[in-house]
Specification:
Length: 267
């Protein structure tokens, strides 16, 4: 005889399913059967979890009242939570020890730390939750962790553009685009990573002139895909005119009065 588990344990286990698979529909009917309770009980449990997640400021649970009877966790950061995350990262990046030649800053350790990359990915996912993308696209190398966690939060696959074709990627499409220095750069994407006609969200780690993002736009065009948004970790204030006109950045890199790089939140 199977014994029903206590409600506290059930709440924890249901919440874990939503958090492990964000933006993916989970059947409430299957949960009711698995936990040996009515669907009404599961619905009440989901309501409690939704209230808790909303209070934490990390997202909400959307319930499909149709035939599927499913629910999904949507990572929509509250204004306060978003500000808290970005202020922490901006403060770290504003350390003078991070200044590099050419007015750049070192941020690789931030993006390759899962704790920060996940939080930043959730912030970008929140910004583009309504764009209804089918796939997230980025370019190697530093943009991959941010794009991967953004894709995870949106429940989407990730396509990675490379600057060198690899035999392990199979057949690939190549595009050529001008860089900020006037050179011409090649970019490759395996044909199995992106299907024609898909809706694409572009994610880039750093944008100065926007040439890399512009290259990804050309790549999407080659696949006859529709670009529905462009998200950036850090955008440089200069030059003001970018190769990509429509984008949204989490942080902005500016220069203080003494010429020192300064990182601030983009509201």
């Amino acid at each position: 005889m199977t014994v029903k588990i206590q409600r506290t344990e059930r709440l924890v286990r249901i919440a874990s399913r939503f958090l492990l698979f964000p933006s993916r529909l989970i059947s409430m009917t299957q949960m009711a059967e698995g936990f040996r309770v009515s669907k009404t009980v599961i619905s009440d449990d989901v309501s409690i979890i939704n209230s808790s997640l909303t209070e934490e400021g990390i997202g909400t649970i959307s319930v499909d009242r149709g035939r599927t009877g499913g629910a999904s966790f949507l990572p929509t950061l509250s204004r306060h939570k978003r500000k808290e995350i970005l202020e922490t990262v901006a403060k770290l990046l504003s350390d003078r020890d991070r200044v590099l030649p050419g007015g750049l800053i070192y941020y690789g350790d931030i993006l390759f730390d899962p704790m920060y990359a996940f939080s930043l990915g959730m912030a970008l996912a929140s910004d583009f939750l309504e764009c209804e993308a089918d796939v997230v696209m980025t370019s190697e190398v530093k943009g991959i962790p941010l794009a991967l966690f953004t894709a995870h939060c949106l429940g989407l696959p990730l396509a990675v553009c490379r600057f060198r074709n690899r035999a392990s990627d199979g057949p690939a499409v190549a595009v050529h685009y001008p860089t900020g220095t006037g050179d011409v750069q090649a970019m490759y994407l395996g044909t199995r990573q992106l299907q024609k006609g898909k809706r694409v969200l572009l994610v880039d780690d750093y944008m100065r002139g926007g040439s890399t993002a512009a290259g990804m736009l050309l790549m999407a065009k080659e696949f006859k895909a529709e670009v529905v948004g462009t998200g950036v970790f850090i955008a440089s204030a200069e030059p003001a005119k970018k190769a990509v006109a429509d984008y949204r950045a989490l942080l902005r890199l500016e220069k203080s009065q003494d010429g020192t790089p300064l990182v601030s939140i983009v509201s």
